[in-house]
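Collaboration report, partner site 2.

Our partner group contributed sequences for two proteins of shared interest, and the home lab folded both. The records are reproduced in the order in which they were received, starting with the first partner submission.
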Amino acid sequence: MIVYPNAKINLGLNVLKKRADGYHEISSVFYPVKELYDILEIVPSDDFSFSSSGIEIPGKSNICAEAFQILKNDFEIGNVKIHLHKLIPIGAGLGGGSADGAFVLKALSTLFDLQLSNTELEKYALQLGADCPFFIENTSKYVAGIGEKMFAIDLDLSEFELKFIFPDLHISTAEAYGGVTPDIPEHNLLDAIKHPIDNWKEEVQNDFEVSAFAKYPQLAKMKAKLYADGAIYASMTGSGSVIYGVLRK
């Protein structure tokens, strides 16, 4: 079985407060980007194995293997051989790792006929990471809490062009949150995102940009270039470092 875990962008990302458990309450809109994707192959095997190609994946553990083990703990599924061809940049705010984990869960449910509902898959995905449940339904969502509260919204950017700038820069989640100051935004994101896209430049903000742009001035220049090239709205996605623009076709 071959599946294509896709990226996402954040349309606004507000860090509202830090909780006692160390996690942060956020407000964001996640939008799937099907044009950017990894390639994931999963086939039955006598022994479990994971391999990868493409962009090098740092660290010893891998979310794909973790996803397999989570289902293996609860179901009598056979071993599989997983190969991930990594194309979505890492540490870019595009959610590539989260997508990989979620797509493994969905693929295994299909491969072994587990008949798991989306709600059940989302609960397993949350064990992998706060962004992972989004990729189960993989449709536009308003996201709250630590990312586990999702609400479907009517948002379609297909009449626009998305343009990306991929800096050779990895910003870890820990680094990003270490530089942000939680606060309640001037504009409520759920209301702002429903306004005409021409208003977003003033109303839809990513709180991570303040510290990221101060530390990496080239990111601010990339955002400015997108506006100079005609973007209606431009932003860093997630905790960075990719910058995207929304342009009229």
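Second partner submission, folded after the first:
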Amino acid sequence: MDSFQRDGLTFDVIDGGPPDGEPAVLLHGFPQDATAWNRVSPALHQAGLRTLAPDQRGYSPMARPRGRGRYRLRETADDVLALLDAAGLESAHVVGHDWGGVVAWGLAAWYPDRVRTLTSLSTPHPAALTKAMTTSDQALRSYYMALFQLPLLPERLLLSGGGTPLRRMLRGGGLSREAAAHYVARMQEPGALSAALGWYRAMPLGLRDRVGTVRVPTLHVWSTGDTFLGRAGTDATAQYVDAPYRLEVLDGVTHWLPELAAERVAELVTAHVRTA
């Protein structure tokens, strides 16, 4: 499949690997797209997994609704359920990075019958992250989330000079010139950056979208070079999982795990899927 629909929106999907393989849904974060998994997927395919990597809400050109309420976590999680239904899948392994990790946590907590295993790259359990905001330096690390609440200004700042500030941020985090250029170009599409920022702007509306205890086998991967997400949230995550849980810490890698630690990520996901 190369697309699916929900509520009048059309989402692009990269579908690869053996058609009859165990399915794994790969969920990207900000400001990435499904190509973030391009170096991870081939190894998963060799391990016998079928991968479904969607361009999520706001990132697919035909799935950029207006209004921050359209980007609440419940909406983005239900998009993944629509993907599973369109693919004829009762359940799948779910792997998420950054905002994709938040969606993965929500799916596993709310729809455990649809999630075979959960792998969250970088992102701790949402409740653990909230706790870390008041018990560590996480609030300082997350200052940009407050900035992103402002209308229009973030778009102007990040895309000024042909997207130079956004490109500098991505390159400073270790992304290749090609990957940074690709993501910046996608964010320069009409309405794309505002739609992507809708995920942040919907956060004040998401208090009702509480993510509770997760009861599916869970792997959390965090890296010591992550400047956006500190160790406190990661250390608190285990208390929100009532199932086999494993934490894997990658030394010296920055936030962009699918791109910069693809081989190790694929190894960890494969092992997690096989032992669940």
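Feedback sent to the partner group on the second submission included the following. The chain is about 40% helix and 20% strand. The domain at 3-275 is CATH 3.40.50.1820 (Rossmann fold).
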